[in-house]
Design brief:
Two copies of one chain form a homodimer. By secondary structure, the first copy, chain A, is mostly helical. Chain A has helices spanning 7-14, 18-26, 43-57, 62-72, 79-126, and strands at residues 33-35, 38-40. Chain A starts with 6 loop residues before the first helix and ends with a helix. The relative contact order of chain A is 0.08. The A-B interface holds A 51, 54-60, 68, 71-72, 74-75, 77, 79, 82, 85-86, 89, 92-93, 96-100, 102-103, 105-107, 109-110, 113-114, 116-117, 119-121, 124 and B 51, 54-60, 68, 71-72, 74-75, 77, 79, 82, 85-86, 89, 92-93, 96-100, 102-103, 105-107, 109-110, 113-114, 116-117, 119-121, 124. The first copy, chain A, binds a DNA duplex through residues 6-8, 16-20, 22-23, 27, 36-39, 56, 61-63.
Chain lengths: 128, 128
DNA sequence: CGAAAAATTGACTTTTACGTAAAAGAAAGT
DNA sequence: ACTTTCTTTTACGTAAAAGTCAATTTTTCG
């Protein structure tokens, strides 16, 4: 386990710019330590970045990603808060399931296209 | 089977604005007929809109959605084009599978959160 | 130490995907 | 016929998510 990552190490690993990581910091999604002015990223920050980018790939907005991250931060002590959190978890789950269904549907259509292509290829080989 | 849909019928059905549908037309994603100036949407247009919105939910850009739609338009005749298309189908499939994996991972983390919440709830009930 | 490479801040710009408003032509109900 | 409701075009506006540029530090390494 490494102690710290520099910002450029992480930009290279994840294929994002420094501007992007600083933007995420401005947005409060990550809070790397500082030595003087320089940012020091720990592996927990690195992991958070992974989650942020995962959310991004799924088309979530920064606000939505923030919600998800807040959820990960662990359950609060108070009863009302707990119930609210579980409700939010349920909502996110529904969103994700919808997306998964969208993916399955799209994959199915791509399968059809693929078959049509193969059929057309076969025709061509026979020499239409 | 209905013959035509008006623009507002579709906006209501899909929960989008007229501006959005016109925007998609400007972008060449749909091409409704015209009677005079008024747009007439057929069920094929309606179906296309469904696909567009599905892509949108998945976080695809308009350009990417256009690619997918172009793919659906059916296999071209020429061999080179066919091979190109199959390559693009394969690429999209990979993108979608990545997204699906992202979803599974996120769902798994939500499961953990849920469990933690339930555990905390149990503690509260016993009276910590 | 001293130069080169890396990091920081701040400001301005860009792109995407629409929102909004204005002005005017068409449709439909009474 | 008249009013209300739709619809259209044109044009400008905007929020989100960075990109880009410039001017400074700060670090690193020979």
């Amino acid at each position: 386990m490494r102690k710290y990552y520099t910002i450029t190490e992480l930009t290279r690993e994840f294929g994002v710019s420094t501007r992007t990581l600083r933007f995420y910091e401005d947005e409060g999604l990550i809070q790397p330590e500082r030595r003087g002015r320089t940012r020091l990223f720990k592996s927990s920050d690195r992991h958070l970045i992974k989650e942020i980018l995962r959310g991004r790939r799924l088309g979530f907005t920064i606000a939505e990603i923030r919600e998800i991250i807040d959820i990960y931060k662990g359950p609060p002590g108070e009863l009302g808060q707990l119930e609210l959190m579980m409700k939010r978890v349920a909502e996110k789950r529904e969103q994700l399931k919808q997306k998964r269904k969208d993916i399955e549907d799209t994959l199915a259509e791509l399968d059809n296209v693929d078959e049509a292509c193969l059929a057309r290829l076969a025709e061509l080989r026979v020499g239409t």
